[in-house]
Amino acid sequence: MKGIGSSQWGSIACVILMLWSWSPPAQANARLVLQPDVRTVVEANRSTNAGLSEAQLVKYLDEQLYNYTDLAGGLQPERIVVKLPGEHTRPDLLGVEEAAEEIDLLFSLIKYGYAGYQYFGGDGAFSRAREEMLQDLLRYGQAVPVIEYLHLICRRLGFVQDGHFGVENLILCKDYQYWADNSYEFDLDQDGFYITDSLNSRRLISVDGVDPSAYMRPSIDRDGIIKYVPGVVSSEHLDGTTLSMEFSDGESQNASLSAAVASRPGGPAYELDEADGIPIVAIRSFTPTPRNKPLLDRMLADAERLWEQEAIVIDLRGNSGGNEHYVSSWLSRFVLTYPTPQSVRVELLTDVANRLTLNARLLQEEPGSSLGAYYTRMRELQRSTATPGWSEVRQTRAVRAASNPFIAVLVDRDTASAGESFVQCLLQMDNVVLIGVNTKGLCLTGTPGLVTLPYSGLTMSVPTALRFTGGFINVDGMGYFPDFWVHPDCALEHTLKFVRRYLVEQSLASDMGNV
C-alpha cells in the first residue's frame, strides 16, 4: 500500500477545511424563541379563527359578487378617462344640471367598475345614496361649489368602508387611531393589574367603571420590559379624553389619552443595517419605481442569508405597499416556502373595470409599452370565465411555517396594502412577534382603477379586485393589531432591548410539531 504524499495531504487538508467551513454552527440544532410566559402573552393577544370550509367559502364569495348581465353599462370608453392635474383646470363652481348628470355617470361607473359594489349593499344601498345626492343638489340654486360637491359625494358614500376607494385625496372609510396614556405602566399577575411606585404597590380595580382588561394593552417599556398601558382604538378624536382609574386603596386617577402618531421614518425603499449584532431589515416600499427597483432586487438577494441569523428585525413602518410579487418572492427565498393565510381573490372584468385599470396603468407605464396587449388580454379573460364579468376565483389555502431566526416586525399606521400582506404572511410563521400600533387597513380590495369625472374634474380611485383573507373580516381603516402596543417612534429601541431580555434557546426538534 502506497503512502500518502505531501501533495495529497495538502489536498485532503483543503477538503477538510472546506467541510469545516461549510458545517453548520453548533447552535444550528437550536434557535432563539420567546420565553414561554411571553409567548403566552402573545398568543392571548391574537385573534384566532379556523377559516372556512370549501363549501362555506364558495357560498360566501358567491354572495359578494354582483350578477352582471351587461358588461358595459351603457358607458362609452371615451367617457372613462383619467387626467393629470396639469391636463385640466378644475372649476370652482359646477352647474346643478351638470352635477346631476355627473352623479348618474358616477353611479354607473361604481356599479360596473367597482369590485366591492355588492359587498357594500349592491343596488339597494347605492341607489339610495344616488337619490340622497340628487336631493342634496336641490339646496343649491344654479351652481354648487365643487369643494362642497366633493364633500357631498363623500358623505353619501360614507358607508363604503374601503381604504382603496376614494375621491381626490379623501378616503371614505373611517380611520381607527390608537390612543393611549403611556405615563401609566402596569404589571400583571394572577390577581390582575398593579402599579408600583417608590412607596407601595396598588391594584387597579376598574377603568371607566368596567374591568381593566377592556382597556389595558400589552406594551414594552424603554428597558424592554413588558408592561400594560391604558389605551383604546377608536375612529373618534380622543385627544385629551380621560379614563377614570380606580385603585384598591380607594384612590382614583385619570389617564389622559393622546394619539400614537408616528414621524414617518422615510429613507430608501430597502436598507439592511445592524444594531447590537441584530440585522435591521427596513422595507419602506414594495413599489418598483426606477429608483426603487435595484433596491428591491437587493432585498430579494439578501433574504436567503438572513435565515442564518439568530434574530432579525423587519421594519415595515411607513411601508404603504406596492407589488405583492416582492412579498412572495422574499418569503420564498427566506423560508423556502410561502407562508400565507387562507385567502381568495377575484378580479372584476367588465368593460368599465378594464378601462379603469388601464387608466391606472397609463399613469405608471412608459409610452409604447404593452398596454394594448394588456387590454386585449383582459378582454380575452372576460370571454373565457364562467361568471360574467368576473375572473376565475384565485384561492389560497393556509400555509404555516417555522422560522429559524426570531423575527420582530415593526408596524405603524402607514403600513398598508402589500405591506399588510407581508405582515399577514409573517404571522403565519411560528417565531414572530408584531410590535407598534395597528396598521392602516387597506386589505379588502385591490387593483385600483382611476377615472376623472368630466364636469367637476374630480378623480376617483375605484378598486377592481375583491379579496378576503384570514377570518374574512373587513379590517379596512382599522388594520391588524400588534402583539405589543408601542409608540412607533421608539419601537425599534424598545424592541432591541425586548429581544435581549426575553429570548431563550430552544431545540429545533422540540417545537417543529407545533407549526
Quick summary:
By secondary structure, this protein is α+β, with helices and mostly antiparallel strands.
Can you offer a commentary on this structure?
- This protein has 515 residues and is of the alpha+beta class.
- It has a domain at 182-256.
- It is built from 13 helices and 25 strands.
- The chain has helices at 6-22, 36-45, 54-64, 96-113, 122-137, 146-156, 293-306, 325-335, 351-362, 371-384, 418-426, 491-502, 508-511; strands at residues 30-34, 93-95, 143-145, 166-167, 170-171, 177-180, 187-189, 192-196, 201-207, 216-220, 226-234, 242-247, 252-256, 258-259, 270-275, 278-283, 311-315, 343-347, 394-396, 406-411, 432-436, 445-452, 459-469, 484-485, 503-507.
- Strand 22 and strand 23 form a beta hairpin.
- Residues 1-27 have low confidence and may be disordered.
Please give the share of residues in helix. Answer: 25-40%
Overall, the morphology is: globular
Number of helices: 13
Structural class: alpha+beta
Q: What is the end-to-end distance?
A: 54 Å
Show the helix and strand layout.
Layout (H helix, E strand, L loop, with lengths): L5 H17 L7 E5 L1 H10 L8 H11 L28 E3 H18 L8 H16 L5 E3 H11 L9 E2 L2 E2 L5 E4 L6 E3 L2 E5 L4 E7 L8 E5 L5 E9 L7 E6 L4 E5 L1 E2 L10 E6 L2 E6 L9 H14 L4 E5 L9 H11 L7 E5 L3 H12 L8 H14 L9 E3 L9 E6 L6 H9 L5 E5 L8 E8 L6 E11 L14 E2 L5 H12 E5 H4 L4
Parallel strand pairs: 16-17, 17-20, 20-21, 21-24
Antiparallel strand pairs: 1-25, 2-3, 4-5, 4-23, 6-11, 6-14, 7-8, 8-9, 9-12, 10-11, 12-13, 15-16, 18-19, 18-23, 22-23
Helix pairs in contact: 4-5, 7-8, 9-10
